[in-house]
Amino acid sequence: MYPGSFDPVTNGHIDVVERSLKFIDKLIISIIRHPSKKPLFTFKERFEMLTDIFSDRKNIAVEYFDGLLIDYLEKKGVYLVIRGLRAVSDFDYEFQMVLTNRKMLSTIETIFLTPREEYLYLSSSTVKEIARLRGPVEKFVPAFVADKLKEKFNEVSNY
Ligand code: ADP
C-alpha cells in the first residue's frame, strides 16, 4: 500500500509507484481523505486524478482511508507499506512514522523508494505554489493534473 495525501499527485509519486511495481504484483494507492493540513483539492478531485492516471493499470487500485493507517492496513490484510524518500528533509518524519506504526502494529514493514534525481526536490506543495503563480506545472505533473491545477487557481483568483 502506498498511502499519502496526493494533493495533487506529482511525477514524483508516479515514479515511486512504477518503482514499487518492479518487485510487487499489486499496489493499492491509498488517499488519506482528511490530512492534517487542509488540502487544496477535495478528496473526490484527488481520487479522480489518481484513477485517471492509472485507469489502464489492472495491478493498481486507488482507495482511500480515514483514521489510522495501521487500522486500515489490518482491515485490508496488507502489511507492506511503500513510501517515497526524497532529500534528508523527509527522513525525520518518515522515521518517526515507521517506528510509531511499528509500535502499534508490529507486522508492518515499510519500504522507502527514492525517485529519479529530477524529482528529488519535487513536492505537491511546490507544484501548488508554481500553479498559484501561474508557472509551467506541466513539467512536474501529468497533463490532466496540470489542467486541474490551472482550473483551481482560475476559479479562485485571489489565492
Ligand atoms: P503525506 O501527506 O503522507 O506526506 P504526500 O502525498 O505528500 O503525503 O506523499 C506521500 C508519499 O510520497 C510520502 O512518502 C512522500 O515522501 C512521497 N513523495 C512525495 N513526493 C515525492 C517525490 N517527488 N519523490 C518521491 N517520493 C515522494
TrEMBL record:
It holds the Pfam family CTP_transf_like. Residues 1-129 form the Cytidyltransferase-like domain. ATP binds at residues 5-6, 13, 84-86, 94, 119-125. Substrate binds at residues 5, 37, 69, 83. Keywords: ATP-binding, Coenzyme A biosynthesis, Cytoplasm, Magnesium, Nucleotide-binding, Nucleotidyltransferase, Transferase. Its EC number is 2.7.7.3. Its cofactor is Mg(2+). The record marks 13 as: Transition state stabilizer. The keyword Transmembrane helix does not apply. Reversibly transfers an adenylyl group from ATP to 4'-phosphopantetheine, yielding dephospho-CoA (dPCoA) and pyrophosphate. This is Phosphopantetheine adenylyltransferase. It comes from candidate division TA06 bacterium ADurb.Bin131. The gene is coaD.
